[in-house]
Amino acid sequence: QVQVVESGGGLVQPGGSLRLSCAASGPIFSVNVMGWYRQAPGKQRELVATITSDGSTSYADSVKGRFTISRSNAEKTVYLQMNDPKPEDTAVYYCYCNLRLRPWAVETAYWGQGTQVTVSS
Questions:
Q1: CA-to-CA distance for 79 and 3, rounded, in angstroms?
Q2: Does residue 31 contact residue 53 with C-beta atoms inside 8 Å?
Q3: If we measure between CA atoms, which residue out of 36, 64, 40, 39 comes closest to residue 48?
Q4: Are 66 and 52 spatial neighbours (Cβ–Cβ below 8 Å)?
Q5: Which of 56, 59, 74, 81 is the most buried (most CB within 10 A)?
Q6: φ/ψ (deg, to 5) at 40
Q7: Separation CA 8–CA 28 (nearest Å)
Q8: Hey, what long-range contacts does 31-34 have (CB within 8 A, 24 or more apart)?
Q9: What is the Cβ-side half-sphere exposure of residue 71, based on CA atoms within 13 angstroms?
Q10: Rounded Cα–Cα distance for residues 77 and 16 (Å)
Q11: Using CA atoms, how far apart are residues 10 and 12, in angstroms rounded to an integer?
């Protein structure tokens, strides 16, 4: 059974820092792109950051210079380091992983359950 489990959410003060983690486990042949989306109340889900298996990254303009995405291929884990968070970063953060379960299988996106991040003083 493949699982994608996030951790690290919570309450953080503006200007503080928080790190989210997301680990994929189970019978996985390979992990390609990993990333983070977020969804604030009453808003559409938006892409925050992505990272490829060779470490290439991309970010939403709203988080550039403040958030850093990284990964451990050996541990099938992706991280989101959130520095200088702002109240507008408050949202449920979802991790996703593009996984290939067998060498011949197509890649499929697996999602975590979401973790709440609240930025408030």
A1: 16
A2: yes
A3: 36
A4: no
A5: 59
A6: -90, 160
A7: 23
A8: 31/73, 31/76, 31/97, 31/98, 31/99, 31/100, 32/98, 32/99, 32/100, 32/107, 33/97, 33/98, 34/71, 34/78, 34/95, 34/96, 34/97, 34/98
A9: 26
A10: 23
A11: 7
**Cα–Cα distance, 83 to 19 (Å, whole number):** 9
Q: How far is CA 65 from CA 5, 101, 121, in A?
A: 26, 34, 22
**Alpha-carbon span 97 to 116, nearest angstrom:** 19
Q: What is the pLDDT of residues 19-65, one digit of tens each?
A: 999 999 999 999 999 999 999 999 999 999 999 999 999 999 999 99
Task: Answer for the pair 71, 98: CB distance below 8 angstroms, yes or no.
Answer: no
Q: How far is CA 56 from CA 82, 90, 116, in A?
A: 18, 26, 26
Q: Are 59 and 89 in contact (CB under 8 A)?
A: no
Token pair 């953080």 in the structure block, residue? 12
